[in-house]
Amino acid sequence: MHKSILLSLILIPFYSLGSTDNKSAGARSFAMGNASVALYDEWSGLHNQAGLALLKKKSFGAYYENRFSNKELSKKSLHVNISGKLGSFAATYTQFGFDLYKESKIGVAYARALGKHFWTGLQFNQFRKELNAEYGSQSKYTFEIGLLAEVVTNFYLGFHISNPTQEKFQTLDYDDHIPTVGKFGFSWKLSNGTIISSEILKNLDDDLQAKGGIEYPVSKKIFLRAGVHNHPNSISLGMGFNFSYLKANIAFSRHPVLGYTPSVDISFQF
User: Helix or strand or coil: residue 106?
Assistant: First the structure.
């Protein structure tokens, strides 16, 4: 077997340990330790769908994450957001893996305001897992719900739960749960534009995870970011560039054993 494929099969369990937040995406969030439940941006459909209700423009974008610098563990994501008077609609797609083991998620979301400072979002998902010829493939359907509230000016609380029905992939030979994950956290925008975010995440099958991140605006168009989280202990750094119709972000994180993971995204607004 090719060395890279063998390495990928060995690393898949480690990847799963670091991916309990249900296929998140976006290099901004990644740079901030994925402490994103109370943030809102073009990638909210993959973090907390309630944040979609605050978007003013339509957008589409792409994300790439090269987990542990191994292409067989790469993650690719796409988003399309449409905002209007009736609320915000979004579609997302995420894929992880390679020919011998591949996971994908398709999501369709709707978000709207429930008041001047309170928003909610609902997303329906298809999860698909493709294995080798012996095990075949399966698709499962579930949903996730998000809430976001501005409790005081520029201070937001967010809550999100995914797969509350505890759907799972199951055959005669294996039993693989789709993560059931609850997240709760805050984001706080300071007077100079700096944003501090933090959240706690609980996967029913894993220990409680704590995350924290910070975003500092160098200018109106350039942002520096950093983040940390535990289980596994990891640090991350990144940079963002915001222009009139284009947003681009880069980030990387370091796992204490498995090394570095770079990521990048780009979104177009109209």
Answer: strand
